[in-house]
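User: Could you check the structure of this?
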Amino acid sequence: MLEYIFIAFIAILGIQFIYYIFIFGAFSFASKAPKQATFNIPVSVIICAKNEAQNLTTNIPLFINQNYSNFELVLINDGSNDHSLEVMEQFQQTHPEQIKIVNVAPNEQFWGSKKYALTLGIKAATNEHLLFTDADCKPVSNNWITEMTQHFSEDKELILGYGGYKKIRNSFLNKIIRFETLITAIQYFSFAKIGMPYMGVGRNLAYTKNLFFTNKGFVNHIKIKSGDDDLFVNQVANKKNTTFCFSNNSSTISNPKTTFKSWIQQKRRHISTASHYKKTHKLLLGLFYTSQLLFWVLGILLLSFLYKWQFVVALIIFRSCFHYISIGFAAKKLNEKDVILFLPFYELFLIFVQLFIFIKNIRSKPSHW
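Assistant: Sure, the predicted structure tokens are below.
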């Protein structure tokens, strides 16, 4: 039996090598995606906000002051019951030609649906090229619009960007959140690089009006409350129409969750949404996660019986080497180098958190969105 487990362990290691070197390596070892010939095209930056008065007060000036001369800011008030609308109107008074407000009243048919609010905002946008972020996001530079939109072209209608989280010193939870965000970004950038784009994040995402309306917007998954970003990308993205941007000036930064309970709830929503991906994407992502879990379970099992322990240790070290190299190069690209020091520990912790969430989601679906 241990011999069969050892053979399975080697096979799992081979699968991991393919993922980290050949799939994730497509992004980790790649140069920056070339910018297209477009320059200063008209852009509509769209921000959907629900009870985000404080974040809007802080962050709207960062968007207004972008080094880009040809853009409008579309602010969507998604049925807020705080002062979000008043904040939007105050900024509109000082920038009437630059800011457009879409005030979304509650609708019984689409109650609490961000997709409904976003659809109204997209319809109201003046320009063909749309750039999306969230009210709690900050662009890392005044060149964010320039960096993201320079990847549009006649063929490329969808641009995937990186949405990171604010660094909090001496916080284990913050390291885990940022590590998980890094791994997710490596995955969706890598699959886009090899011609199999499957998701993006609404914190930093761009596409055209034509792409949105040609594919009937969010109609195919309108009843699923989440997924205005990743499910839409999963539906419409392909090798020809999708590219990505990861330059130092193209990212956004959000405030991370500060309690494990709120973070787990957020991850439950994300994982439940992923169950609606295309079958090929679910298979590839599921195989990667399963290979991670089995590598450590089988490795620990073999070591506990001291079965060919020298070879097992050597293989674990070998795996750690290409693991660090692949993730390390990607972390450097995305300015997340500080999360890779304790890489194996973070990986193990995240594996079992995801297993816990997967089991919990089977027993009961997330009820809070």
